[in-house]
Amino acid sequence: MVADCGANCARWLLCLTNFICICVSTGVLIVATWLAADKASFINTTLNITTSKYSPASNFVDEEAEKILKEFVEPAVIEQAAYILLALGGLIFIISFLGYCGAIKESRVLLTTYGIFLIIIFALQVSLILLSTLYKSQADHHSKGFLKTSLSKYYTTGANKDAVTLSWDLIMAHMSCCGVDGYQDFRTAPLFVQKSGTEGLGRQVPESCCILTGDPFLLHPEDPSCITSPTHANSYLSNGCYNKFSNMVNDNVNMVIGVVVVLAATQLLAIIFSFCLCRAVGEERDYHYKY
Predict the structure, then answer these.
(1) Beta-carbon neighbour count of residue 172 at 10 Å?
(2) Which residue, of 47, 97, 142, 260, is most buried by count of CB atoms within 10 Å of its CB?
(3) Between vectors from CA 161 to CA 158 and to CA 167, what angle results, nearest 5°?
(4) In the structure, what pLDDT confidence band is assigned to residue 74 with cuts at 50, 70 and 90?
(5) What share of the chain is helix, strand, coil (3-state, %, to 5)?
């Protein structure tokens, strides 16, 4: 065991932080594995717990909220979420496991591997920020193109909504916006156009584009005719979500910078601690070998 005070502090800080990350990632992996292996069981358990009269959530989950909840735990949504959680949880678990075992066992190999992983992740983040800054117009173009593609290919209405549709509905309802650039985006969404035609209502926009009343989560338009006759008075038809988000980021740029700085500082400290501990372990072993 290293005798140096600074190295010991680095060791136990690495142990503590990585142990917490291991616990969190293990929980994520358990839930993701359950989702991937038995979606029906997860859906039934989620609905039973949430809607049970003994559940703390039962006081504010009415019939309409329960209907929305069922849409969120549809098999298609669950399957997509399961694979995302598996990948994310697996990556965090592996890196945290290397850091924890390397610190607790004072293994130079594990600590070095852990530090290299963090350096790669840090370098990727820095590269992404630099590229986004240097090529802002191209980044905006590609980001907007990706969002338009997701809306055009996957957005639908009615029953059997998938994760993409539900995500767009939440974003538009809570940000008071409509589409990527405006309501015209839904005219180029084949699934939306097809389902709207099947409905026979003459739908032009989804409920989430309308000015809502009550809880935005429930998607209740203040004006029922909004979905067929959207105007500036009853909807956000001209307020694109991309510009709305850009303005929100610009208005809170100090907070965004603060979050980025804290995240970068945390990663840098973890990298420094891992290599400092690795060096201290090497010096300690060399000392014992000589004397």
Answers:
(1) 25
(2) 97
(3) 120
(4) low
(5) 75, 0, 20
| Helices and strands (H and E) in the chain: how many | 10, 0
Residues 6+ apart with CB under 8 A from 219: 68, 169, 173, 206, 207, 208, 212
pLDDT, residue 55, reads: 45
User: Burial, 280: exposed, middle or buried (Cβ in 10 Å; 0-12, 13-18, 19+)?
Assistant: buried
CB 255 within 8 A of CB 81: no
**pLDDT, the chain, mean:** 82
Q: Residue 64 above 60 pLDDT? A: no
C-alpha count within 13 angstroms, C-beta hemisphere, residue 39: 14
Share of the chain above pLDDT 90, in %: 30
The string of DSSP codes covering 218-268 is G--BSSGGGGTS--TTTB-TT--HHHHHHHHHHHTHHHHHHHHHHHHHHHH
Q: How far apart are alpha carbons 155 and 264 in whole angstroms?
A: 35
Residue among 242, 248, 252, 240 nearest 143 (CA):
242
Closest CA to 155 of 168, 174, 142: 168
- pLDDT of 40 reads 65
Enumerate residues 6+ apart whose C-beta is below 8 A from 149.
Answer: none
Q: How many CB atoms lie within 10 A of CB 89?
A: 20
Render pLDDT for 108-160 as a digit per residue (tens, 0 to 9): 899 999 999 999 999 998 898 888 788 878 878 888 888 898 888 888 887 66
